[in-house]
Recover the amino acids of this structure.
């Protein structure tokens, strides 16, 4: 594919309303998941800053405090949200993008 053909394909895809809708939906999901993890991280930092005693509360008779599983939960939340995005991209966004490209002869 020559540069001219590639430029024409990019312009045609960019003008496709299905592509614009796809970009909007993908962006909305990305920003929503980003906001969720941001709020969770800021909440954890605020707990560290303003209620250290809550996070220092021991769990059972051991030496592990509540802050350890909460911090681990935050890490697992980030991994899970990444999985949500990847699953959505693989199951929906990729197929829709492939259909758009196919319709434009790519």
């Amino acid at each position: 594919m020559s540069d001219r053909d590639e430029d024409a394909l990019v312009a045609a895809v960019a003008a496709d309303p299905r592509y614009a809708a796809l970009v909007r939906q993908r962006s909305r999901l990305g920003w929503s998941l980003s906001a969720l993890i941001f709020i969770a991280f800021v909440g954890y930092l605020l707990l560290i800053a303003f209620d250290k005693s809550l996070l220092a509360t021991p769990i059972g008779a051991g030496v592990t405090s509540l802050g350890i599983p909460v911090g681990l939960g935050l890490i697992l939340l980030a991994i899970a949200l990444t999985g949500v995005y990847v699953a959505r991209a693989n199951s929906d966004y990729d197929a829709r993008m492939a259909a758009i490209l196919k319709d434009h002869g790519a």
Notes: The radius of gyration is 22 Å. Residues 3-103 form one domain. The chain has a mean pLDDT of 92. The chain has four helices and no strands.
